[in-house]
Amino acid sequence: MVIYVLTWLLILLAGTGVAATTLGWPRHGFAVALNLGAGGMLGLLLAGTLATFIGGESGADALARVLPVLALIAATTWYLAWHWRSAETTVSTDRAQRKRLWVISILFVLLIGLRLLPLFNEVLLRPVFPWDAWSVWMVKPKAWFLGGHIDRYVDPVSWFAAGDGLRTLAGSNYPELSGRLQLLLASAAGEWNEPLLLLPWLAMYIALLLAFAGISRRLGCPPLVALGGCYALASLPLLNAQVALAGYLDLWVGAALFLAVATWLLWRRERRPALLLLGLALGGSMILLKREGLVWFALFLALIAFDWLPPRWQRRAAWSGVVGVVVFAVIAIGFGSGIDVLIEQWKLPGVQKLALAWRPRGVVFVTAMFTHGNWHLLGLLLVGLPLLRWRQFRADVEARLLGLLILTAWIALIVLFCLTPAAEWAVRQTATNRLVLQLVPVMVLWLTLLVRGWDPLQLDAMGRSRAT
Amino acid sequence: MFAAISGVLIVGVVLLAAGVPWSSPLSPAERHQLEPGDFQIVMGSALHTEAGLEVGAVGNERVALQSLPLGMQGIDAATLDVLRYRFENFPRTLELSLLFRRASDPDDVQVVSLPWPGRGESAFNLRDVPTWKGQITEIGFIEAATPQLIPNGIPFAAFRLVDAQLWSSSWRGGLAALSTDWLAYRPWGLFAVSSVDQEAGTSLPRRPALLLVVESAIAIVGVVGLLLFGWRRREFRIGLLVVFAIGWLLLDAVWVGQLYERQATTRKVYAGKNWPERARLVPDDDLLKAADRLRDMVARFDPPPRVVIHAASPVEMNRLQYLSLPVNAALLVWSIDPMRYDFPPGTLLVLYGMQDWTYDADSHQVRTPDLTFPTEPVLEEGALRIFRIIKRERP
Fold first, then answer.
1. Does the global pTM surpass 0.90?
2. Test the A interface: residue of B182, B185, B193 with most A CBs within 10 Å
3. What ipTM does this complex have?
């Protein structure tokens, strides 16, 4: 158990070290939250990535190789962060303001903290529960840990055809970052103890909330808005369910996408290359988490490229995008079967029939935003707030860019669920809500940016100086 | 004025959600008492006491069932459409269902999952059950461990049926049923990780969700405010903000309440036990035992053979694969084209609950209507059968 605790400590130290080096030295309230939150997320992703690429042939190998590297990263990054730290900023000494901020902060911490006890109990007491966790995601690490060797997973046909040393699974080609991290933690714990291996889900949730509060503050939101957005995110039932019934990776993808986009927004303001690199690395980590991470990463890269274009070209790119989507939709709806005939005739390697057609039942995943209890009133906010804050939206380039990312992601989902056979998933509400969940942290960040000029408690003067 | 109009309209939406005919009286005109003392014990055991029906044990299938015949004529389903029920000490590890039989279909028993009774009285709107129609000749309650969630090893705890009534349509009954539908504890389901209400488990909400009522309330405040004050008035924006914040907090309070109820169930099952004990407490402990046997069997071979698992359902197949790790197993459904099932000799073929797959000892074959596997039997224990693939004789 000592090694297990040490592993967590190193994960946190390495992650917060990277966060301190790239996002700045944590001096006060929100900056500390940002460091702990972003650091926690980075630490988990970093440990999983290291275990994937240098983890060797077994859990013992992973432990022996990854822990020293984490320690080295922690020492180096904290040293560099200390060395590069900027001079302390001045803070307001207005006692009334400080008192108001404290009261508001405590109120929101209580509102958010209320759910931590049940979530903690669910994670720490129960053996792995949800379907994909025991049918896909935790199969590999359990086999590797109990088998004492990291065997390669292949599809069933290859498994039968080949000799020993191979294993098979329905999702044999799924990314392995979480599995490698769980193997590392199991090796550190010295036993296959499922709650100890699912604890990263609770850690990821808390880290996401801390990072959200810190980064939205850093992006100019007043404390009330930053904390309100953080509470809104924390309270979403499906996000809570993904923590309580830990084992699915949608929360992880959502957290990585959020932090990638947020650090890129910071880079746009501060132009420090480390921020851009961090954003890109986080975006890339989504591919190591789940396959759909590739789609979100591609959209993220497209957004960066779009932002890089001169305004005239941006307009052209936007119109080209609109025309492209319309043309694709018309072709898919009108000529879907014809496309499949061509695919069949040409017999292109690796290209299967697409079965494109308009499937209106797939729209149910959009209506579920307003009718099912997964998101509280988020659906209403997503529609209503941009209308109410239209002028701010038009004037705010960051909100516009984030809005564009969200719009393209929703178009991708609508194409998937309304034009392809994946519509069946939408009807059964299994994958759809989880894919939306991956976008939720970014969507909540967008909403907070839309109201960042709103500061009824006049807390911003002090907060802004503290956050810098 | 703004608050009054909005308030009246919001109350109207709540009443609409209750699904009660507008002509209904405030209190039920007719009540049919289902005396706990009159219930017959069909499964499990129970005692009739002055305080109610004390259910003390489940039957062989780990199910308790109490039934009440309602006579040849029965009762009219259209008249009595709200069920009120009160239990004491109802275990949170059990699921409660309503059973009824119709005069038109005497051989067919209808079963409907009810919201967990919890503390105090609960109500259920039987109008939401399409099969609640005609004359009802028998009614009853079934209690069983919550499926997919509660391990068999959790001991049964006694509880008491204190009161049950059927009410005719009324606002009181309708609103009570709406309140139960919104607030009753609902256990975690296998798909709750994908959807917290719809498709999340066996006991699903049936009335329009509280979310829809809250959204309607916001829309009402928005429209009324817009009409009375116009877009730019401060009152309009403040009203909208306040009702939105209250709505969100209300929804969150209900959700956090659910989280606490659910963790109470989790604690009831798992708290105070060390990990090895908790690891054995899974809802499908029969599969866990089968996985243990499979692991033992594989360990007897050197080198360990590869395994192909087939079971009656995908859940059982996947669970058996996971629980038996580190056994190197594939699932038959994910394997190659069924017509090419030609497993190497030495492979273990594991069948769980596949009664229609028979073994012919004379020809040393496991047979299905379409396939044959040359095998020799290794183990047969309950639903678990293990065979070893042998060399296929050339025709």
1. yes
2. B193
3. 0.92
